[in-house]
Design goal:
489 residues, alpha/beta, Rossmann fold, 5-stranded parallel beta sheet, 20 helices, ATP-binding, sequence-specific DNA binding, DNA-binding
Length: 489
Amino acid sequence: MNAPVLRRLPAVLVVDDELRSQEALRRTLEEDFEVFCASSAAEGWEILEMEEATAGVRVVLCDQRMPGTTGVQFLKEVRQRWPDIVRIILSGYSDAEDIISGVNEAGIWQYLLKPWQPEQLLLTLQRAAELWRLQQENQRLSLDLRTAEPALRRRVDSKQEKLRSTFGLAGLVRAPGSPIEPVCDLVARIAPYDLSVMVTGESGTGKEMVARAIHYESSRADKPFITENCGAVPDTLLESELFGYKRGAFTGAVDDRIGLFQQADGGTLFLDEIGETSPAFQVKLLRVLQEGEFRPLGSNKSVSVDVRVIAATNRDLEADVRTGRFREDLYYRLATIPVHVPPLRQRPMDLPLLAGRLLEQSCAALGKPVRGFAEATLARLAAYAWPGNVRELQNEILRLVALADGELLDPELLSPRLLHGPATPLPASDEWTDGLSGNLRQRMDQLERRVLLAAMQRHQGNKSRAANELGLSRVGLRAKLARHGFTEA
């Protein structure tokens, strides 16, 4: 009997009934993947069954519109038979509603919009193949954990930490065209450098998740990530929490305590709600940031630390600086790189994916096997304004899972505020969308042109500053300007 052929490249199955599109996808992927192509769902199914005996396909990339069935329906069937295969769908804007309604049942990991960009497509497929590999490794580690000796258990914990660090940036859930995409691009660019970062945004938008992504995408990923909510602790306690103290430093200090700065040595310290601290405490924090050392309370010796500080606030700190409530020198020390996280109401395209991710987490936390959302439930979630942002969405889905009796989350389980309309009604008209015409793709192009024009006007034609604001490279900005007919002066 012939020995099996060892596959050197991960395999991907492309299902697309348009042969030109199929060939373009093959050419883009063939250097990094072994590419199998199918012109129909039936042909794709035959390839999967053939490949099953030889460890097979890791990723399926499927077009939404095909004769006889949709991409979503095909991926539902793939999930039932081969749940470990990572499923990606390719579609146009007009297919978004069909995909959203089936995203949970099909277990779609990502969807890409046409026309796709080769670099984005290849990067997405590479991440999908890596996700498949890590899922297999995680399953093996889980099995090992049940029987491992303590020494092996420590090695397994280390590998699981590596798994978390690998997907630090991927933990920021977003759809193509999301306002979070420029944030992710900025995180990827600044993470390798030990610069202080100020993350701003409304409460509940996920500022801590952005901070974690910066940490886990950096060279400090194998070191501690320590958090402190500065707004929840009085100044006197905050100082002892951050800097530590010696025994006898104050009443009740019966033992030495190592502060959070020292615990985070080599890693990252995340200071949430930094805007709530007093000017007196801000002076002490500024000294640590400038000199890289501090004195624990009650000690006469300084302790040196190597810590990257990421701060976050939902306040307008620039206004606080003008009124004297926040020190200007500390603000500029903390805000070397500002990162703004948009509210959930500005990210409607992300809501189905976020809801799906939070549903998985809620089911795991509560131990309830809920399959997904009823279509009407997902529609109500999309219609709500989410003043509490992602945190409010997370709490709502926890509630739904806790109350659910069946496999689907029905709309009658929703909180009254969601059933009876948005808590913060969305405006019926907005100056940015007034006058847009045509189909969704055409309106998105018109809106992009307005955003580009406004950014260039704000920065008086300076492309570098406009590109930085929009999370683009200078070359990328010039390409977009050219596409929309803006000519060089």
